[in-house]
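batch_manifest entry 22 of 60
target: Large ribosomal subunit protein uL24
source organism: Streptomyces beijiangensis
requested by: lab member K.T.
priority: normal
notes from requester: please return tokens only, no post-processing; we will run our own comparison against the previous entry in this batch. if the run fails, retry once and flag.
--- input ---
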Amino acid sequence: MKIKKGDLVQVITGKDRGKQGKVIMAIPTENRVLVEGVNRVKKHTKAGQTARGSQTGGIVTTEAPVHVSNVQLVVEKDGKKVVTRVGFRFDDEGNKIRVAKRTGEDI
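--- output ---
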């Protein structure tokens, strides 16, 4: 997967199109990423009690995973944020390095 945890991405399709956020978690087995502030869903949690006796449960708003094909990496070029595809190259020691296709810079 070309998107990793901590990357800044922009949603390119769906109800949250145009929103930008940081990748909280990458799930390569399912080709999905969890993006901060994107694809927010309401979950109904069962009421219960904690060890101190306080009530838990109710309606909780959390982020749900988004398919990795629906997001694009955002890099900064001359103070502007640019949406780009990701490519790879190998350095002299044979290490794989991610490269922004639009700017040509290493990520």
